[in-house]
User: Fold Cytokinin riboside 5'-monophosphate phosphoribohydrolase from Daldinia eschscholtzii.
Amino acid sequence: MTSGPNSNATPRRAKVCVYCGSSPGNSPVYVKAAQELGRLMAENNISLVYGGGTVGLMGEVAKTIVSIAGPDAVHGIIPEALVKWERDATYSTTTDANGYHVPEEQIYGRTTVVKDMHTRKQMMAREVIEGGPGSGFIALPGGYGTMEELLETATWNQLGIHDKGVCLLNINGFYDGLMQWIKTAVGEGFVKGGNADILVTANDAESALKALREYKVSDARYGLDWGSE
Ligand code: AMP
Assistant:
């Protein structure tokens, strides 16, 4: 039991960063999984930080959460250069100075436009790091962008920059190949055995949120911080 000046402070809300495709995928199971994750996050009072696009799986997660928990539960962070590509006209009533769509806050939540990709990634990670118990990162299926963000986040965990869970939501066995690669990399001596579980896996949204709540950090990690990366 905590005592002292902060004992009556409201507990920090869990914050989950979801990495996922800017495309919906070919099977409806992917969109369904994105909606299910959004629904469970909203019902469990978990807020979302994400890439800020309105397209593909990322738009689905954001829309679902806002429809249940309201716009304050979602923060999208998008680099200037991607605004043109990752916001469509579906729920946009205004355009910015360049004529690009500005998504409705009442549909997609709060959005922040930042100067570049690195700023976005750091801001998203910081929000998770500062979140309450159960905060972490979840990857739904996606393409190169998803994989790049996912592996960078795993690497930041390996370096000791954060200690939050990183969970693959393995819909349709989508991440079986990546899990196999981790085994191979450990077997061949390129990933330390203790770091094999930096990426954990779950087959459904409920198990993914549970995996973040129960996440244990590896003791094989380095102890760096942002400045020493
Ligand atoms: P994708 O999985 O390829 O559909 O991309 C999902 C998201 O990853 C995109 O919406 C981008 O915002 C983001 N992303 C992050 N890093 C990169 C990168 N280096 N190149 C392209 N997209 C990226």
About this structure: The chain has a mean pLDDT of 90.
